[in-house]
Structures are given as structure tokens and as C-alpha cells.
């Protein structure tokens, strides 16, 4: 069973994440969902958690250092910090940027793969660089599920294309099919009424 779903997005991510989270509707979200969205370091007073929360049936909040990882919760990497998964909790780091980004999708995905192995699911969405490709490969190598947004449906295709070039994946899906895919793997019974 999938215990954690990690999602990476960059350019065009707000629209993509809103679509995915609005389609992630179920009576019982069992997994934890963790998102690394590239954003400006100056966005410390960001409204991103609030905006995404309006699209989600689960609570959405920024992760904090040493916070216990809870199921049925959607976490966001804070701006200008790498978000790492450790055994049972998060860690924040200000190490050097990876692929010009902090938070780095690769860092999130690689640490999720180390801790969760085949209980992890990685999703790469729209973006204009190669961040996430190495991390998705790590999830795949440890037996986790891997999903990439069909580059033809991405606002910027470079990130999904880089992920596809880096590793075989379990599914390449148009944006509107990613939320339902997550429901099948991260939820108990799908919601009967939307």
C-alpha cells in the first residue's frame, strides 16, 4: 500500500496542482501527500497553502522542521528550504540549490525513496527544468510507483520530458487523470458524491 505520495511541480504548477488536488476526492485519504513546488524565496508570506486548500478535501499546510508526518494530510515544502523526509518526520535544510531550486524536487523524492521504498509514489508535473528526474528514478529503483504528466498536457514540458528520459515510469497521464490515479493508490473507498 502507498503510504506517501510526493509531487513535484515548477512553472505552471499552481494550475496543475489545483487540478490534481481537486480530483483527489475520497472518503478516506490514507497516504500523506507532500508537494515541492518551485517558488520565489521571497514568498515567505505565501498564500499557496490557502489557494491549494480551497481545491482539496484534505488539510493543506507548509511542513515545518521536525514535524511529525501525519497521514491524510497534504504538506508543502516551504519557500527557500529543501524538504527532507526522515523516519517519521520532516527536516528542513538550506543546503545549496539543486537544479537551481530550493526546495528541490530531487531532494524530496530521494529522501522519500530512502524512507518509504515501495510504499512511495512519485509524480512529476509541469516545469521548465530537469528537477525531479533523478528523484523519480530513485523512487523507481526502490520499487515505488512513478507517474509523469504527459508533456503534451503540461504548461512547460521540460520537466516531465526530463523525467521520462531518466527512467521508465509506471504511467504517463494527462493532467486530468493524475488525481484519479492517486485516488486508486492513496485512498480507501472513493467518494460516492463529489
| DSSP strand count | 9
Radius of gyration: 15 Å
| Residue-averaged pLDDT | 92
Quaternary structure of the protein? single chain
Please characterize this protein's 3D structure.
46% of the residues are buried. This protein has 194 residues and is α/β, with parallel strands linked by helices. The protein has helices at residues 13-23, 48-53, 105-116, 133-141, 158-166, 175-186; strands at 4-9, 32-37, 60-62, 74-76, 82-86, 89-93, 120-124, 145-149, 171-173. α5 links the parallel β8 (145-149) and β9. The strands form 2 sheets. A 7-stranded parallel β-sheet has the order 3-4-2-1-7-8-9, sandwiched between helices.
Short overview:
30% of the residues lie in helices and 21% in strands.
Present the secondary structure layout.
Blueprint (H helix, E strand, L loop, with lengths): L3 E6 L3 H11 L8 E6 L10 H6 L6 E3 L11 E3 L5 E5 L2 E5 L11 H12 L3 E5 L8 H9 L3 E5 L8 H9 L4 E3 L1 H12 L8
Parallel strand pairs: 1-2, 1-7, 2-4, 3-4, 7-8, 8-9
Antiparallel strand pairs: 5-6
Helix pairs in contact: 1-6, 3-4, 4-5
Keywords:
194 residues; alpha/beta; 7-stranded parallel beta sheet; two-stranded antiparallel ribbon; single chain; disordered C terminus
Amino acid at each position: 500500500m502507498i503510504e506517501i505520495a510526493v509531487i513535484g511541480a515548477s512553472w505552471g504548477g499552481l494550475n496543475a496542482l489545483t487540478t490534481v488536488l481537486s480530483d483527489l476526492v475520497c472518503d478516506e485519504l490514507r497516504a500523506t501527500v507532500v508537494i515541492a513546488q518551485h517558488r520565489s524565496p521571497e514568498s515567505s508570506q505565501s498564500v499557496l497553502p490557502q489557494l491549494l486548500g480551497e481545491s482539496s478535501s484534505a488539510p493543506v499546510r507548509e511542513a515545518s522542521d521536525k514535524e511529525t508526518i501525519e497521514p491524510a494530510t497534504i504538506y508543502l515544502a516551504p519557500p527557500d528550504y529543501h524538504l527532507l523526509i526522515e523516519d517519521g518526520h520532516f527536516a528542513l535544510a538550506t543546503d545549496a540549490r539543486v537544479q537551481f531550486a530550493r526546495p528541490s524536487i530531487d531532494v524530496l523524492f530521494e529522501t522519500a525513496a530512502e524512507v518509504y521504498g515501495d510504499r512511495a509514489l512519485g509524480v512529476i508535473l509541469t516545469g521548465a527544468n530537469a528537477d525531479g528526474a533523478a528523484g523519480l528514478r530513485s523512487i523507481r529503483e526502490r520499487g515505488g510507483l512513478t507517474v509523469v504528466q504527459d508533456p503534451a498536457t503540461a504548461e512547460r514540458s521540460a520537466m516531465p520530458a526530463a523525467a521520462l528520459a531518466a527512467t521508465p515510469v509506471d504511467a504517463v497521464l494527462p493532467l486530468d487523470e493524475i488525481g484519479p490515479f492517486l485516488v486508486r493508490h492513496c485512498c480507501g473507498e472513493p467518494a460516492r458524491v463529489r
